[in-house]
Amino acid sequence: MAIAVRLVTSDGDYTAWRQVRLAVVPRERADSAESLRAQAGPQLQFLLAEADGVLAGSGVVGKSDLADRGAVSARVLPDWRRRGIGTAILRELAERAAGMGFAVVGSNVEDAGSVRFAERYGFREVDRQVEQVRVIGGEPVPQVPEGVVIVPVSSRPGLWRAAYQAVGVQAFKDMATLSPLDISLEQWEREWITDPDAMFVALAKGEVIGCAGLLPDTDDPGRAEHAVTVVRRDWRRRGVAVALKQTCLVWAASHELREVYTWTQRGNDGMRALNTRLGFSTRTESLTMQAGLPLTGLP
């Protein structure tokens, strides 16, 4: 069997890459082909794997959201597993990550088979991400603190850029991650918002003090990812996060979503507790695994 791993180049390639992701990770939203093409570049590369010319898997390599490390992900369609395709993808990803200047790479895995595969090549667990899900029903009117106004980004598009400086940069330093998040303004505007109607900003005296929002799933209109909830330090524990999350849930109900889901770090007990108060329940955990380059055990 001839295995070929190559860079994604055409619109058809991006569609095929999404096809693999949706098959392997069906419970999560996938960026559109147009969004993937816009993100791609020297520091973010999408790959396809083919076996005798037939689509068998995919990969992605680039800068991690965590500072000073790369991120890799190898996915193989179920019918093609245990034939060396995952190893071939991982080898190519590791070489490209090294070429980008990274000495350490990370990856998120869920099932036991993927954990064993990663451990074979030197990856070790360093953190866990917890997925919580909320069934949408009749949602109560948000209880907004006095002096606070919550508006959708669509009403004032410039607010999203303002939110990056006012609350985003501060929150990245405070999140319970292995190292501070390294998110550029460009990433914030390109990747952290997809529908300005579904992203909300909290204002006090005209200043941004918080934001939260949903990333609707274009492949499954009945669900959305609850992607971000951040509040300025001097406004925390004053009901702003609750009001922002409730606003998101009301939006979800008004657009007939059946569920929203969110991921939090293992160490972020406060946010998980808040989500639980609002009716979220834990569905699964994802292991964050990390390895130094070059990887060990690769043939």
Structural class: alpha+beta
Q: Would you tell me the overall average pLDDT?
A: 96
Mass-distribution shape: globular
CATH topology of the largest domain: Aminopeptidase
What is the domain tally?
2
Gyration radius, rounded: 20 Å
Q: Beta-strand percentage?
A: 25-35%
CATH homologous superfamily title of the largest domain = Gcn5-related N-acetyltransferase (GNAT)
The level 1 CATH classification of the largest domain is Alpha Beta
Helix content: 25-40%
Uncertain runs with pLDDT below 50, 5 residues or more? none
Summarize the main sheet. Answer: 12 strands, mixed
Order of helix and strand elements from N to C terminus: EHHEEEHEHEEHHEEEHEHE
Through-space gap between termini: 17 Å
Helical stretch tally: 8
Number of strands: 12
Pfam families: Acetyltransf_1
Protein name: GNAT family N-acetyltransferase
Organism: Trebonia kvetii
GO molecular function: acyltransferase activity, transferring groups other than amino-acyl groups
